Amino acid sequence: MRNRLSNRGSREPTRSASIASTRRVAGVSSLMAWRRRVDRLLRRRPKAAPGEDRISALPDDLLLLVLRRLDTRAALGTGVLSRRWAGLPRELAALDLRVSDVLPPRYQRWLLRHRDIYSKGTFVLYRPRLARHEFMPNMTRYERRAMRAFTRSLEGLLAAGARRRVSRLRLEFFTTRNTGCIDRLISHAMDDWGVDDLEVIARPTFYQQTVHTFPSHGLCEEPGASRLRSLKLGCCVIPRRLHRYGALTRLVLQDVAESPPSAYENVFDSCPQLQVVHLNSCLCDRDAVMLLDAPESQIRELVIDNCVIGSVWLRDLPNLERLASMGTKLCFESDSVPFLRQWHLARRHGIEVEGFRQLLRRHLELNQFVEHTRDITDLIIRFTGPDRWIVPSTSPSSLLPNLRRLLVADVPSSWDVSLPRALLEMAPALETFHIHIASCMEEPNNEEIISWHPTKLRGHRLKEFVMAGFQGAERQVYLVKFVMEVCTALRRVAMFRNGHAQDKGHWDWEMVMQQHSWTQEEKDATLNQIMGAVSSAAPPVQVVLG
After folding, report:
1. Phi, psi at residue 343, to the nearest 5°?
2. In what helix (H) or strand (E) does residue 303 lie, and over which residues does it extend?
3. What is the DSSP pairing of strand 276-280 with strand 330-332?
């Protein structure tokens, strides 16, 4: 019995091993059979001949889908790949044609070298004759070659005669004598392609600062039938017959050549359908006055940024809601902007030359800026220059009764508290108050400290007060104590050693802070100075030091 059991036990491993080996043989054979089938399929597939283009063999629908996902330069460049690609229609909804895409990298290196020499002031040491015979020939040669290639490509685009629908066209070119095809392309795009968003940027050449002038008939042959809604012109003369573009609602003029104020006034008067107007770095007479009196205007957004002009008077813009005036003197007449809600005000005051500065120096009253803007809710103020000091108003009142959000940026570290305190007293409904203090080499002058009468302000609605650039100076601590004393609804006070105000468009901002490691002694000393003015019965306030 024992022998039978032992024999049976010895046969079991042999039988299991044979089964496992059989399974392995079957698996290997099936794998080899699968490989043979794959090899037969691959042998049946026709091999690609050397140099054969498989992508060009795709259907037109797939190739057009590829083209639509490319930018303008890459999509037009596919025409040199093969005849098949050259025959495909370029159905691009937006065309972005720039002469800078044609310029070689060497041009950029020459340009950077020229700017570097003049920015460092070494042009005095650089021989003028060498600069004339080295920079000018190379730069002009590259610009001339680029414009020739650019105009040839535009001529080819016009000669193709393909029907297309283009919604946006952007052109960038050098202002030379050979810009006739530019005008023809613009006219063709507006009349035949139905462009509704047009941007024309003319770049002056290296040796000649000229602007582009449009033909006498304007941008296109049939302005009344044009779909143009948005127009941006850079370094161009204001075209004629803008009032005939009935669909035009957005106009941006940038680096416009010196023009009389009447040229701009005519745009506001004759184009009542405009809703957005931006004037950026436009030239005018330094002593001229631009009068904006357009009672039928629909303009809701106006930006005047660093325009060279004496002053701009707003007499009547009844629908204006957002205004940005930066580097340009702006004056209001009573009830000229009844719906103005957001305002970005940036001005430089004073003369840098010390002798003239003392002779012409004067302090500013805030009334002259905000006395006709009672309904604004958002305000950004940037005063720079040596004479940016604000004195208390001779007739203090709540000139900003509806103001909710306020940013006072680029305040010098040698300041007194006149500007923030004046704004706080003028805006009883203010809820958010942000201040950015910029470093200043000028030491605080006791003569600049302006005496203030005790405030009658109590129960202010301010909820958040943030100061970036807080250094613990006496004047800064005084302002924080003043805010915490008079603002009974205050919930948060934040003081950051390092930080700045970052613009988010023209009418919004974000306080960008960098954390600073305060020692415990510094924190205790600062908090003791600030909290001493807070009543024990006042609601708790969150104080943040960063």
Report:
1. -140, 130
2. strand 301-305
3. unpaired
- Which residue's structure tokens are 């009253």? 365
Q: Are 394 and 450 in contact (CB under 8 A)?
A: no
Q: Tokens standing for 138?
A: 């190379």
Nearest to 347 by CA among 383, 376, 385, 320: 383
Beta bridge partners of 96: 170
CA separation for the pair 240, 397 (Å, rounded): 47
Please report where in the chains the tokens 């930006």 appear, as a residue.
303
Q: Strands 168-174, 197-203: parallel, antiparallel or unpaired by DSSP?
A: parallel
Q: Which residues contact 524 (CB under 8 A, 6 or more apart)?
A: none
Interval 31-52: pLDDT, tens: 677 666 656 655 554 555 555 5
CA pair distance 388, 79, nearest whole angstrom: 59
Query: CB within 8 A of 137, min separation 6: which ones?
Result: none
Residue-wise pLDDT for 241-296, tens only, equals 888 998 999 999 999 888 889 999 999 999 999 999 999 999 888 888 999 999 99
CA pair distance 256, 236, nearest whole angstrom = 6
When comparing pLDDT for 14 and 500, which is higher?
500
3-state secondary structure of 63: helix
pLDDT in tens, 403-448: 999 999 988 877 767 778 888 888 889 999 999 988 775 655 555 4
Tokens matching residue 271: 């184009």
Amino acid, res. 389? W
Q: Pick the more confident residue, 146 or 59.
A: 146
Spell 250-270 as b/e; 16+ CB within 10 A means b: bbbbbbbbebebebbeebbbe
Segment holding 170, helix H or strand E: strand 168-174
> How many other CB atoms are there within 10 angstroms of residue 273's CB atom?
15
Separation between Cα atoms, residue 426 and residue 403, nearest integer Å? 9
pLDDT at residue 89 in the model: 60
Q: How many CA atoms does the CB half-sphere of 368 hold within 13 Å?
A: 9
Q: Token pair of 49, please?
A: 């001949």
Q: What is the pTM of this model?
A: 0.80
Q: Residue 331: is it exposed, middle or buried by C-beta count within 10 angstroms (0-12/13-18/19+)?
A: middle
Taking CA atoms, 105 is separated from 99, 108, 148, 218, in Å, by: 13, 5, 17, 35
Query: Which residues lie across from 168 on neighbouring strands?
Result: 94, 197
Under DSSP, the state recorded for 482 is H
Which residues lie below 8 Å from residue 458, measured CB to CB, with a gap of 6+?
A: 486, 488
Dihedral pair phi/psi, residue 501, rounded to 5°: -100, 120
Q: Looking up tokens 């650019």, which residue turns up? A: 150
CA 512 to chain centre: 17
> Mean pLDDT throughout 325-351?
88
Poorest-pLDDT segment among 89-93, 218-222, 480-484, 502-506: 89-93
Mean pLDDT computed over every residue of the chain? 79
Q: How far apart are the first and last CA of the chain?
A: 92
Half-sphere exposure (CA, 13 Å, Cβ side) for 442? 14
Supply the Cα-derived Rg of the chain in whole angstroms. 35
